[in-house]
Design goal:
two-stranded antiparallel ribbon, elongated, disordered N terminus
Length: about 325
């Protein structure tokens, strides 16, 4: 990732305040034309198309969006977790804790995965662990829908009055902090997603069974391939939406599977919402090669050798404060 940190021979600089679509002279194109963004200082200016081409060709230019990524690598979100990598997210920690708590239970493999999927609707570890403990105490290998609904509902009622403020559980006004039973990336309460999963239980269990076969056959997995295995049910489908992508992430983490970086996954991430498409386009990350250069750069900055394209996309979402719903 030296290309991102090595100074350009042209000493390129960029300005975030340039006006869109101005007709100027491009040093690379050697003509005057319009472009959405201009990089560099007159008279050594480059249009966005020429600049992106230079970057893809491996010239030693600093991508204009890179300084912001580097500058925010230590930034935390409203939940108190760092945003630069998936492993710092509160829901990822909760999922991993859930896998440990369930490892010695008598639940079947398929049911353990279902319980982790349901517990992820709480997002934070506190209610998630309360739900898992309640399921384990029942002592059944295959808890039925009524048991899941009963325990899930009681946990939601118990934690309804609590909020998360600066990463800590607190009792405070609804105007402060974040609900500890809600994914901050969604507009809906986690109980709605919980009820959707339980309401579609046979199809969700069938989906988990198919994914278990896929996991057994692959050391590394991809979101694009998982979406095809998911198929179609009332709640989850093969469509590249945030809801379906998050389901893939949860189940991969629950089974300790790593995502392989591939162009198919980049296309899935780019297409999972209009916000994601516009964010990547606005920041000049329009192709897989550019995204992977950023991934390599984040490996150096974060010190995480397993930093992946999935981490980078999550970082981009959180840094732009993008909100998804479905």
């Amino acid at each position: 990732m030296h290309n991102l940190n090595t100074r350009c021979s042209f000493w390129l600089e960029y300005s975030t305040g340039v006006m869109a679509m101005l007709a100027k002279y491009c040093l690379a194109c050697r003509c005057k034309h319009k472009s959405q963004h201009w990089y560099g200082v007159r008279p050594s200016q480059f249009c966005v198309t020429a600049y992106a081409r230079m970057y893809r060709q491996g010239l030693r230019v600093v991508h204009p969006s890179w300084p912001r990524y580097a500058r925010n690598s230590q930034l935390s979100d409203a939940t108190g977790a760092r945003i630069c990598a998936a492993e710092y997210r509160c829901d990822v920690s909760a999922i991993r804790d859930a896998a440990v708590l369930l490892s010695n239970s008598i639940l079947t493999s398929r049911m353990r995965t279902l319980v982790i999927l349901l517990s992820s609707t709480y997002y934070f570890s506190w209610p998630s662990q309360a739900f898992i403990t309640g399921i384990i105490q029942v002592g059944l290998a295959e808890p039925n829908r009524e048991i899941l609904v009963s325990i899930g509902g009681s946990v939601y009622k118990r934690f309804r009055a609590y909020r998360v403020l600066h990463g800590q559980l607190a009792v405070c006004s609804s105007k402060r902090g974040i609900s500890c039973t809600k994914n901050p990336s969604e507009r809906r309460c986690g109980s709605m997603r919980f009820n959707e999963i339980v309401g579609d239980l046979p199809d969700v269990l069938a989906m988990i069974s198919r994914l278990e076969v896929y996991f057994a056959a692959n050391a590394q997995v991809s979101v694009s391939a998982m979406l095809q295995v998911i198929g179609r049910s009332r709640i989850y489908s093969c469509r590249a939406s945030y809801k379906n992508v998050r389901c893939c992430r949860i189940l991969a983490i629950a089974t300790s599977k790593r995502f392989v970086d591939c162009i198919e996954d980049f296309n899935v991430f780019k297409g999972m919402s209009p916000h994601m498409r516009s964010t990547l386009k606005a920041w000049g990350i329009s192709d897989f090669a550019t995204a992977m250069k950023f991934v390599e750069g984040m490996k150096d900055i974060s010190g995480l050798t397993k930093y992946s394209l999935n981490d980078f996309i999550i970082y981009t979402c959180l840094m732009s404060a993008t909100v998804f719903d479905r």
